[in-house]
Specification:
Length: 209
Amino acid sequence: MRRVNLSFDEVNSLSRSEYEEYFDEMGIDEDAKEDRVLMAMFLEDRFLEIFSKIEMSILNGVPYFMDSFSLFEEAYVIASCLYQGVTEDMVRQRASDFALAVATSTYDNEGTPYYLSADRAVNMAATESNGINIFGENNDAKLFGKTKKTWHTIIDGHEREWHEEVNGVTVPIDEPFEVGGDLMNYPLDTSFGAGADNIANCRCWVTYS
């Protein structure tokens, strides 16, 4: 995975400890955890910039939906390509789906402080960093000839019941998991139409064999 020079002070980021704690819960190695932490910090920085631009647009009475959609999509694509080394074409649909969902929820909840808050930026960054990294790891596993994948869920009383049900399930690498009625290639996958009840704040991960 390629590293990039970040536009913020990654050492002094107030969110680093939050991300480290979040990803510590997962059964991933230190390199995978650090990849997720750095990407989350990158995304948080971008999301806060976008939130600031939305706030200015609201104050000035300027329409912002399409601009915010484009900015969220661009942030997702840049993070994916820089950190995972994938091509823009590989992630464009995922980026578009993410941008539409977050731009719509932001617009629909205008006036609710959380939707332009640092807390939301951190939550989004952690979730999307996990999802982008899982996507990249899935591509790498195929390139390295892996044939099976196993879903893992953190069991600590906060897990979704249907995520607990799929914990430890192994399927062929090209087949999706069935998760609470949705089909998903891996945690946080939306390519088959999985909704927020399967995606938001998901802490699951996959291993390959």
